[in-house]
């Protein structure tokens, strides 16, 4: 197992090193995204030469280290963030997350696509990109290649938005005030990194609001994961799962850990330097999880998934652009 873990750690170090390149900083490509790309490159080249005894280490990174990373992700948030952004940001976040996930699952059925991929894509689009996909993956226990497909969709459309939003705002095309634009960006951009990148390009006033609104969306991952666990327990009897038919719910305990860490962080007991260090370590752990998932994803599996996941992600993207703008333009002012 140790050899497999060290292999993934080595790839993660490479992802961090590559992420220091100026071009990746400018487009806010986090080490996590670079990590899954490296993992997929490995999966489609040298993966077949990997000793079988190393495979458990890779799976350990994709499961156990992933959950630890999600728990420590709570050090990026505080409950004070909710108070700072007010009712407008919270209400719009809830609407965006609910409609995106429920609508995405329904569209997935209409497209007759894989249920897990549709669910992961919807959660990634609705909450916080790759981190949300990873959290949901740990709850539904799906195949790694499905996770990689979902991550690919949110990365593509989130990156496009990161460049479009500043241009659209500065041109006056959106017609939003700085506060409204901050809510719009935070409530609709896929990744935290995308929100930071686009926010910084539009100025501090917008960036501060956008990041807080985005972090509230991240907090919504907890109720979503618990609802997801309950929903899976209800669906399992229909699929003939005997253990689940007894009423057992797959409780995502790491989500409770995530919430507990947010509460601890809200107390401001640790110096900022310590929190920054924890966040750096957490990013490395999540990068390891992404590399491990990528290492289980070959081109053949992408072909198996087909074009439907990207069609679904595009439809959800249109909803985020149009629906998010309408909510920010007409609903947000009522509470600001």
From TrEMBL:
<feature type="transmembrane region" description="Helical">
    <location>
        <begin position="148"/>
        <end position="168"/>
    </location>
</feature>
<feature type="transmembrane region" description="Helical">
    <location>
        <begin position="307"/>
        <end position="327"/>
    </location>
</feature>
<feature type="transmembrane region" description="Helical">
    <location>
        <begin position="209"/>
        <end position="232"/>
    </location>
</feature>
<feature type="transmembrane region" description="Helical">
    <location>
        <begin position="253"/>
        <end position="271"/>
    </location>
</feature>
<feature type="transmembrane region" description="Helical">
    <location>
        <begin position="31"/>
        <end position="50"/>
    </location>
</feature>
<protein>
    <submittedName>
        <fullName>YeiH family putative sulfate export transporter</fullName>
    </submittedName>
</protein>
<dbReference type="Pfam" id="PF03601">
    <property type="entry name" value="Cons_hypoth698"/>
</dbReference>
<comment type="similarity">
    <text>Belongs to the UPF0324 family.</text>
</comment>
<keyword id="KW-1133">Transmembrane helix</keyword>
<keyword id="KW-0812">Transmembrane</keyword>
<dbReference type="InterPro" id="IPR018383">
    <property type="entry name" value="UPF0324_pro"/>
</dbReference>
<feature type="transmembrane region" description="Helical">
    <location>
        <begin position="117"/>
        <end position="136"/>
    </location>
</feature>
<keyword id="KW-1003">Cell membrane</keyword>
<feature type="transmembrane region" description="Helical">
    <location>
        <begin position="277"/>
        <end position="295"/>
    </location>
</feature>
<dbReference type="GO" id="GO:0005886">
    <property type="term" value="C:plasma membrane"/>
</dbReference>
<dbReference type="InterPro" id="IPR004630">
    <property type="entry name" value="UPF0324_YeiH-like"/>
</dbReference>
<feature type="transmembrane region" description="Helical">
    <location>
        <begin position="82"/>
        <end position="105"/>
    </location>
</feature>
<keyword id="KW-0472">Membrane</keyword>
